[in-house]
Each structure stands twice: as C-alpha cells, then as structure tokens.
Design goal:
nine-stranded mixed β-sheet, five-stranded parallel β-sheet, 21 strands, globular
Length: 430
C-alpha cells in the first residue's frame, strides 16, 4: 500500500510530497524523501517499554508505574526545568506549558541553542519575511548566509529555490542567481554564482558595509572588510538591487557567531534597505521540524517564545538567565523533564554534569546520549508517522502531520496529560 502526500517530520522544510510504502503494517519504502527523511521513516531500533534506572542498572516497567514515578519526581522538585519540545507536535507542547505552569517551573525549547538570537533580533526590528511558496514563485535572487542547505536541508533548493521552477520563473536554474556567504567552502557554495568567504566573526562588519553601499555611501568602505574585497561587495550590492525579488536565508553560522542577535538585526535592516530599491525578504533556516511550532505555542500561551520562567506565578522571560543551558550551568534546577530532544549531545560539559546529579525524566521513542543520564525514559509514538499532530514549517505555515501506521505506543501528549493529572491527584490528596 502506498500513502501519498505524507509530511516529513525531520527538518523545518516539512516536505509534504512524500510517498510511503507500507507492507504488513511496516514502512518499507520512501519516495521523494531525502537521505534524512529515509533514515527517519525506515529506522527500526527503538525503546520498547519504559525503563527506570536503579543504580547502574535499568529496569523495564509499565506505563502506569512510569507516569507515577515521573509525577513524584516533579511534584517533589522546588525548581523543575522542562526542555526540548521541537521534535513533537503542538498539542504536546501546549500540555507541557500547562504542566510547567502548575509546578511553577521553567520551560525552554531548543531555540535557546540555535535560533534564539534570531528571535531576539526580530523582536527588536521586526521580520520582513514571506512564505516559501512566495520565494519559489517569485524570487530571482537567493542568498544563503551562514548555512549549507544541501546538507542540512537537502530538499530546500529543489522545492523552493535554486532548482524549483515557479509561476514567474519557468527555468529557475538559469534565471535565478545564487549567492552563498560562509566562512568556508561547502557543497552549497560550490554551485553558487557568487561565493563570499568572510573571516570568522566578520558577519556584522560585512553586513554593515553592504548596508552603507546600498545607501550609496561607497566612499567610507575600506578596500577589504573582514576578508571580502570592496569590489566584490559592490558586485553583490548591484546583484541585489537589480533583482526583482530577493530572498535571504540565514543559519546558525550567523546566529551563533560573534555578535549573535545583533547580526540578525543588521541582516533584517539590510533587507529593509534593499526593499527601498526592490522587493527583499529574510527568513531563518529552522532545523528541527517543529521548533517554529514550539515558539508559536509558547508565545500564544505565555507571551514569550522560549525560556519562560513561572517561579513567581507569572511568565518571565530573560534569555541568558532563564534559558535551559544557563539554569543547568548554575546548578539551579533540581529536576529535569526532556521531551523529544537530546541535550546531553549538545549542551556544554558543565550542564551535562548537573544533569547527572539530578532526577531526569526523558520522553522519547529512541535511545540517545541523554538516555544515559535519565532516571526514567518513557517511549512514545513517533509524531508524523504513528501519531498525527500540528507542526509549523520554517516560514510559519501550520501543517497537520498524519498518522500513517498503527502503534500500541501512547503519544507524548497522552503521557504528559497523565503526568499532569497524577500530580493534581497527589496535591488534592494532601
């Protein structure tokens, strides 16, 4: 049996044209998917039942016992931290916010480790963005800054930019120009019409120079700016001003390099300068498939996109203070619940050391580095494959992921709801 138009729950592209072959209730083939999609849909290994750590051993247990144990850990904590959320559906994210509110904890998503600075920059100066459909049909100039989409988002170019014909571009590969800005050559830079290789940490200076040249202030620009010649910068400005519709996409090479959110503010203001001459937009290349959804759900429930602290009974947001890595680094939290994420593989050593010293609840279908630090891991259905749910594409368009095969595993929404109800029972019985 073939199921068509399935949404891929891997990266922020949320490609919605996959064909999935199912035989005897199992996925045996993936059409239209990139290598990342195939790895996700065809992955066989998974945790089969909840496990609890006792000393150096892990013991299998039932879901009721696991939910009760998790509820006891959270109910006894003075400052619980809830982290992850970018690999699950919006419904589970909403339940997580409610649980955090009940306990007066801190809830953060993986934005604080990737595009958090992008959100801070956008909060200062706004976001002149557009949908990926607009880019596909109209953009005749694409800029990738600090990202390598051919490896991180393998179908971004074929669905929306370089190789995607649009309504107003019938032969996109020839009509569309591509500029790549990075500190090193990549697969994406190899196919660019213009590659700007800047020095490490030189993004802010190059963005500022481009803004000045767009305003016609060429005379104040030195011959070299962070490793880029003035003549190349001038050529880039002419390409941008001559385009009918330009789209700038940026990645972690811009958000996590020197100057962080100020880079994003500068890039947004460059977009605004260019829009005085033509149409230009800017968008982040979001990584996890529903990290944009986590920002949306947190914002419409608390007013803030990530790093929300309910310790005072009201939502408080201060990146650098209420972000998960900072709380773990200061050894501030006394319990940690992780949903669909692997912080042990990505956070600094001192944060992971504190994880090893506090109770950790891990809700995830698969074993990963964080499993080794977890006191309890509860396996759940894989959203987008075994459970339906709402996700937001990297351009902010909400999509409904489908359930394409049956499973006996509960969803993470179910597990979080049961933990919430169990804690309420505990508190009502006192």
């Amino acid at each position: 049996m073939m199921k068509k138009n399935v949404i891929c729950p891997f990266c922020g592209c949320l490609c919605d044209d996959l064909g999935i072959t199912i035989e005897d209730g199992k996925i045996t083939g993936v059409d239209n998917g990139c290598s990342l999609a195939k790895a996700k849909f065809l992955r066989k290994e998974r945790l089969q039942s909840p496990v609890i750590r006792r000393g150096n051993e892990t013991i299998q247990t039932g879901y009721e016992e696991a939910v009760t144990y998790a509820a006891e850990i959270l109910n006894n904590a003075q400052r619980p931290l809830f982290f992850g959320w970018s690999g699950t559906q919006g419904e589970a994210q909403a339940k997580g916010v409610h649980l955090c509110m009940l306990l007066g904890g801190v809830i953060d998503n993986t934005s604080s480790l990737c595009h958090g600075p992008s959100i801070m920059g956008i909060q200062e100066v706004g976001h002149p963005g557009c949908t990926l459909g607009q880019v596909k049909n109209r953009a005749d100039l694409i800029i990738y800054w600090g990202c390598n989409p051919l490896e991180s988002h393998p179908r971004h170019m074929s669905r929306y930019t370089t190789y995607a014909d649009g309504f107003f571009l019938k032969n996109a590969f020839r009509e569309r120009k591509l500029i790549v800005v990075d500190v090193r050559k990549t697969m994406s830079s190899d196919i660019a019409d213009e590659f700007i290789q800047i020095e490490q940490g030189g993004d802010y200076a190059v963005l500022s120079a481009l803004r000045a040249m767009v305003r016609g202030e060429d005379e104040i620009i030195p011959d070299m700016v962070s490793g880029v010649s003035k003549s190349q910068l001038k050529r880039i400005v002419e390409m941008c001003k001559g385009a009918k519709f330009g789209a700038l996409f940026f990645g972690l090479g811009l958000t996590m390099s020197r100057h962080k959110y100020k880079n994003i503010r500068n890039a947004v203001e460059l977009t605004e300068e260019l829009s005085r001459h033509t149409k230009f937009t800017i968008s982040p290349m979001r990584g996890h498939w529903n990290v944009y959804g986590a920002n949306e759900v947190f914002t419409w429930m608390t007013g803030y996109p990530y790093a929300v602290d309910f310790a005072k009974g009201i939502p408080f947001y201060n990146p650098g203070e209420t972000t998960a890595a900072d709380i773990l680094f200061r050894k501030e939290c006394d319990a940690l619940m992780i949903v669909s994420s692997d912080p042990a593989a990505h956070m600094p050593k001192k944060c992971v050391e504190h994880m090893a010293n506090i109770p950790v609840i891990h809700i995830d279908p698969h074993k990963n580095c964080t499993s080794f630090f977890s006191d309890i891991q509860i396996p759940v259905a894989i959203t987008g494959i075994e459970a339906s749910g709402t996700a937001y594409r990297m351009d902010g368009v909400p999509l409904r992921t489908k359930k394409i095969i049956e499973t006996d595993f509960p969803t993470d929404t179910d597990i979080i709801s049961r933990i919430y109800e169990k804690i309420q029972e505990m508190r009502n019985s006192v």
